[in-house]
Fold this sequence. Notes:
Blueprint: H1 3-27, H2 32-59, H3 65-80, H4 87-107, H5 109-113, H6 117-137, H7 141-167
Amino acid sequence: MTNGQLFTLWSIRISAATYVASLSLLLGPRNERFRKAYRIAWTAGCILYLAHVCGAFQFFHAWSHLAAYRQTARQTRELFGMEWGGGLYFNYLFSLFWVADVLWSWSNFDAYQNRPRWVGATIHSFLAFMFFNATIIFASGFTRWFGICATMELAILIWRRTEIAESS
Length: 168
């Protein structure tokens, strides 16, 4: 594996770990330390994800949307028997959502934290859906096990937070 390919692989692995850490902070107690730690982790995860995207296009697809589309179609065919590269557009949307969410968190954290619940739920549900697909459905080995454990951890945190909110 070349250095560029290793960069692409490890940038997404660290990004995924940072994504999970960010959400763990988001779902935990909220205080001033939370604000700083969450935004730093959320931003770092997003930057590492964008580094992964650049690495994937540089070292795997020669900056070709068509090559990335075809690779996505091949992976989808291998898993589901249907050659469809449209999942690439979901990746683009994922990028847009995460960057926009990071920018919002830095521009006005009070508004960000107090946004309507459905807005945050919609954004994080889509990001979580993509995380689930990337780490469990389309991955194997260590990455799949990490995705399974991370998804279980986040589900437990969501359940606990919901339970605490209902008892208040």
